[in-house]
Structure formats: structure tokens, C-alpha cells
Design goal:
Length: 632
């Protein structure tokens, strides 16, 4: 039993992070403190001066825990990580979890590659970006590959022939095949240098190169080739036009401003790199109602820059941070960047006008999305509230639904899907392969699935304790289980929960009519009719469909693998490595049967003899029949 007064007395006067839990063990708030003793005590003192959100949060705290660290900086980093991991209900949350692409040039290799990269690594390669549009990055790479015909394979090349045959890119004119020794390293490197110039913003070299090639092709009356160069030239011009918005200071900075409406905020960020506007992006924050603007800005900066690898030299903000937050965040960003980061709030001049532009963009996006946000709330949190009202529950946060799938008892599987606040939480979905039930017994299979799920959540399955159960999706119990069926499935679930001593989880069944459509909810031995035109009904339907889909897909994959395995095992002379290669390359047995012997032989794991064995295994009967017909 958590004794609040006693635990408050034990709090140390040291920096750290405090973690608030509700009665379901869910983490509802994470905060940092210079002194845990002073900060945490404030929550449980007089409510005067506290915002309604904080008052509501305190009312839902069942217990708290804390982690002591050596400095306020460490507390800030830990706070960022915990918020990103747990998405606490009462923290101001960055809804977007974007990652931005880079273009990577492996300059340390003899024959460098130009690649699409999701993160910047310390691997001696040269990176350009981050870019705000993945499409633009892929379009740029396609342009460069068509123009310079560089390689993008993973072969280790040392200057001599390193492959039996060149890849498809060589055959379509997009790789000079250095793997065949076709191009000297010096000539190849010259092209890479031009690519580096282009990615650095110098479009002139490539423009001249393509213009000269286009004119030469025209003079030779090779008009199709000239048209290709013309299209490439237009692509270069299009890319260069995107870089016209310039900042005369020529520095790297992010410009950040936001607009709020109720509990939502839109943050607009302009990305300035080497004095040019690389792009812009907007982000959504929730839980901002009654929050100070300085706190909203601080929360965004901490969550956003905790997840992006690139930190610019300057942040220009439309709202000033609190003095103590500003100093700490600037030090934190400087450590992440490996160089000093300035945080400024412009008051006049060009920089101030850029801030105004960012604020206008944020307001415009917020205004445009207000109706969209309302619709999304109606179909998610609004629908969940409707379901809670139908079942006379005070609130519902987490819903779990289960299904069993099999074919006459063959490869029986169970599925668990999870919805939180009316949205699917796919990271928490789980699959179960039925272990103890033989034959098509859905009730017994469901009993096994539910027992394993809740034993695992109670850290008792197989007698193994979880070292970090808070991060385990099974550890967080649902507020409501929605069983796909009526009284029978509900009773199975209730029996499992009773046997395990779990009383906090409610269970209802989704009852269908004669046409297999949901007509009501079976709850507390009563069928409750529901409004089939409501958002709650639509949410129930989505949960049902998702539960079926997840179970059927898992069952289909197991059934298909078992079928293919059983047949491939019978092919003489084909071992495990080649069986896996066939399963990976061919999506179905029919596709493998239709494959020509030459096609199978092209797989890296195969030679001509092995390919012939596979082909003859599937076609021997057909050839014999043809021989009989010809001899007749």
C-alpha cells in the first residue's frame, strides 16, 4: 500500500525525474526537478494557482516513483526519453514522430555510393540534409543516378572485377558497373566530386553538363536521348528553384513559432541551411490548454530535438523561454551538437519578420485543421466516451479485443489488438500460437490465449519475472475487453479473470445479428442496444474488423509456410539454405511452379544443377504426359 505522506518524507533534495502512476499502473505524467523533494511536494499542497489540468492529474495519482541523477542536465535527458517512451496522458505531447531523410555519400570507399539514409551515423561518410521531403530526396537520387551512373550496391570493390555479371542498373544505363572493372577509380571519383558540388548547392556544373549532352544528342539527331537530357535538365531547374528563399546571413538555423486553440497547438518550423530555406514543417502538440506559452515552447524543443540528429547553430523563437529553462536547454543542445547553440527571440528586422511568417503559417494550419481535429476526436475519444456511457463506466482508455482463427483446428492462432483513446496501438498487438488445444475448439483456445496474456502481464508466465515490466505491452491491463461474440466468449473471459483474481477489467461481447452485423453489446448479462449510426458503433466495427484481419493474416502466414515447407522438404538435394531462398523469393507455391529453370538458377544460392532438380520436381509428371501423347 502506497503511503503518500511517508513517501513524500523520503524524497531526496537532489536532481532527478519523477513518474506519476494512476490506479492501473499507467504512467500519466513525467517531470524533472532540480530538487525532487521540493518539486513533488508542490503537487500535493494547496491547489491554489494550479491549472485545471494539473488538478485533474493530481486527483488521478495513485502513486509515484522517482529516479535520482547527478545533474539537472541528466534529468532533462531522462525526462525526454521517458516522455517519448510512455506518452503520458498529462504531459504536453508532440503528436508527430517524424524522422527526416539524408543523402549519404560514402566518400571513404574507392567507388563511393550515393544513398538514401534515415539517420546520420559516425561512419566517415558525408551526409546532406536533413530534408523535409522523402519524395524530394528520392527524386534527387534518381536524377543523379541517371546522370552520373554511380553504383548503389553493397559489393566490396577494390578496383578489379568483383562480380560474375553486372546488375540490372547497368543494363538500363544507370550504373557504369565498376564491379566489372569498366571504369577507372579516378574517373568515377570525378563524377562523385560533381555530385558533392551539386548537393552542396552548386547546380551550375550539372546544368552545363546536361545542356552540352542535350545539344550533342540533338546534333546527332538522337532526339529521344536529347529529350531525356531535357527532362533531366528540367528536374535540376526545379530543384534549384526550391532553394530560392534565402537568408542573407548564410547560417544554419531553425525558426520556430506556434499558434494555439483550446488543447491543441500547431508549431511551425522553418529550416534554414547555409542561408537557404531547405523546407518547412508543422507539428501538433496536445495538452496545451492553460499552459504558459513559455512552457509550450520548451516542451516542443525538448521533445523535437531529442529525436532529431541535426541541431542547427541557432534557434529563433517566437516565444521566449523561462530564463532557467533557456540556459539549460541551450547547454543541452550544445552538447548534442558538439558546438555552441544560440537561442534568440528576435524583436526587429528580417529575423523578426521570419518569425511573424512562421506564426501566420501556424495559425493558418491550425485554422484549416480545426474541423479535421474535431472529426478525429469524434471518431476516437468521442466514440470511446459513448461506449463508456453505454456501459455506465466512468472512463475508458485502453481496449483490447481477441479472436481465434483456424482451419478445422489446423494451425490454430489467437490475436490481440489494442486501442488506446480510440486509436489502434499496433506496437502492442500480439499473436498467439495455440499450444494446448487440439482441434477446432474456439472456447478452449480463447481460454489459453487470455490466460497466457494475463499471466504474462502479472509476471508469472513460465515463472520468469520481468526486469522491466513497465515497458511490456502485457503489463498494462485494459479498462475494457471487447470479445467478438456473445455470452459464451464473455463468460470464458470472465472465468479467466476471476481465476487470476483480476477485478479491474470489464468485459463485454459484440453481439451479431443473423446477417453477421453487430447489433448490440452484451454486458453484465444484459444485451445493450446501440445506435448503429453513431461514431461509437463505427469504432466497434473497426475494432472487430482489425481483430479478424490480424488473426487471419497470422493464420494464413503459418498455414502457407507449413504448406510450402512440407513440399520443399521433399525435393531431393535441396537443403535448408536453398529452401529458405525459394520461400523468400517466391510469394506462393504457384509462383514457384511457374518459374523457369533459368530463373531459379539466377538466385544467388542456386547453380544450374540445383535449379534443374527443383524444376523437374514440379514438372516431371507434365513431361511424362507430353511424352506419352507424342509417342501415341
Amino acid at each position: 500500500m502506497f503511503d503518500l505522506e511517508e513517501e513524500l518524507k523520503k524524497l531526496p533534495g537532489k536532481p532527478g525525474v519523477y513518474i506519476m502512476h494512476d490506479s492501473h499502473d499507467a504512467i500519466i505524467y513525467v517531470g524533472k526537478a532540480i530538487s525532487l523533494k521540493n518539486r513533488v511536494r508542490q503537487y500535493f499542497q494547496s491547489s491554489r494557482g494550479k491549472s485545471p489540468k494539473i488538478q485533474q492529474m493530481v486527483a488521478n495519482i495513485a502513486y509515484f516513483e522517482y529516479i535520482v541523477v547527478d545533474s539537472e542536465m541528466e534529468a532533462l535527458v531522462l525526462e525526454c526519453n521517458l516522455i517519448k517512451e510512455h506518452h503520458p496522458k498529462y504531459n504536453t505531447m508532440l503528436k508527430d514522430d517524424k524522422s527526416y531523410p539524408y543523402i549519404k555519400v560514402t566518400v571513404n570507399e574507392l567507388y563511393p555510393r550515393v544513398l538514401y539514409a534515415r539517420r546520420q551515423k559516425k561512419d566517415k561518410a558525408k551526409y546532406f540534409g536533413p530534408y523535409t521531403s522523402a519524395y524530394a530526396v528520392k527524386e534527387t537520387l534518381e536524377l543523379l543516378r541517371k546522370t552520373y551512373q554511380y553504383r548503389n550496391c553493397n559489393k566490396q570493390l577494390a578496383g578489379e572485377k568483383a562480380a560474375e555479371r553486372p546488375c540490372l542498373y547497368h543494363h538500363i544505363g544507370q550504373c557504369k558497373a565498376p564491379c566489372q572493372g569498366n571504369v577507372p577509380a579516378a574517373e568515377y571519383r570525378k563524377n562523385i566530386d560533381e555530385i558533392l558540388e551539386f548537393l552542396g548547392g552548386n547546380y551550375g556544373i550539372l546544368t552545363k553538363k546536361l545542356t552540352a549532352s542535350m545539344m550533342e544528342a540533338s546534333e546527332k539527331m538522337e532526339f529521344e536521348k536529347a529529350a531525356e537530357y531535357r527532362d533531366l535538365l528540367n528536374s535540376v531547374k526545379k530543384l534549384s528553384q526550391q532553394q530560392k528563399a534565402s537568408d542573407t546571413a548564410g547560417s544554419n538555423r531553425d525558426i520556430i513559432a506556434f499558434a494555439t486553440a483550446g488543447d491543441e497547438a500547431v508549431v511551425q518550423v522553418f529550416f534554414i541551411r547555409e542561408g537557404k530555406m531547405l523546407g518547412r514543417e508543422h507539428f501538433y502538440l496536445t495538452g496545451v490548454e492553460n499552459e504558459e506559452r513559455a512552457d509550450i515552447m520548451a516542451n516542443f524543443i525538448k521533445q523535437y530535438y531529442a529525436g532529431t540528429p541535426y541541431i542547427p547553430r541557432e534557434l529563433l523563437l517566437g516565444t521566449a523561454l523561462r530564463e532557467e529553462d533557456g540556459e539549460l536547454i541551450a547547454r543541452w543542445l550544445s552538447e548534442k551538437r558538439g558546438g555552441k547553440v544560440k537561442i534568440l527571440v528576435p524583436q526587429r528586422g528580417e529575423k523578426e519578420r521570419m518569425i511573424e511568417l512562421a506564426e501566420k503559417n501556424a495559425s493558418m494550419v491550425l485554422q484549416q485543421d480545426t474541423e479535421k481535429i474535431k472529426r478525429e476526436e469524434a471518431r476516437t475519444t468521442g466514440a470511446v466516451k459513448q461506449i463508456a456511457d453505454w456501459l455506465s463506466m466512468s472512463s475508458i482508455y485502453r481496449i483490447e479485443s481477441y479472436d481465434i482463427s483456424n482451419t478445422s483446428g489446423f494451425e490454430s492462432v489467437g490475436s490481440m489488438v489494442v486501442y488506446e483513446n480510440g486509436r489502434p496501438k499496433k506496437n502492442d498487438y500480439r499473436k498467439f500460437k495455440i499450444r494446448t488445444v487440439a482441434g477446432p475448439d474456439d472456447y478452449a483456445s480463447m481460454r489459453e490465449v487470455l490466460t497466457r496474456r494475463f499471466l504474462h502481464g502479472m509476471n508469472k508466465e513460465d515463472g520468469q519475472a520481468k526486469q522491466d515490466a513497465a515497458l511490456d505491452s502485457f503489463h498494462r491491463f485494459p479498462d475494457l475487453i471487447m470479445m467478438d461474440g456473445g455470452r459464451g466468449q464473455v463468460n470464458v473471459c470472465l472465468e479467466v479473470l476471476a481465476e487470476l483474481g483480476i477485478t479491474s477489467v470489464k468485459v463485454c461481447g459484440m453481439v451479431k445479428d443473423d446477417h453477421h452485423r453487430t447489433r448490440g453489446l452484451y454486458y453484465n448479462n444484459v444485451e445493450i442496444p446501440i445506435d448503429t449510426g453513431s461514431e461509437a458503433f463505427k469504432l466497434i466495427t473497426r475494432i472487430q474488423d482489425e481483430t479478424h484481419r490480424f488473426a487471419i493474416e497470422y493464420h494464413r502466414s503459418l498455414r502457407g509456410k507449413a504448406q510450402v515447407h512440407s513440399i520443399l522438404d521433399d525435393i531431393p538435394g535441396i537443403g535448408a539454405v536453398r529452401r529458405r531462398a525459394l520461400m523468400k523469393h517466391y510469394q506462393s507455391l504457384d509462383a514457384l511452379k511457374a518459374a523457369a529453370e533459368e530463373e531459379i538458377a539466377e538466385l544467388p544460392e542456386f547453380n544450374r544443377r540445383a535449379a534443374r532438380q527443383v524444376y523437374e520436381f514440379f514438372h516431371a509428371d507434365g513431361r511424362e504426359a507430353e511424352g506419352d501423347r507424342s509417342s501415341g
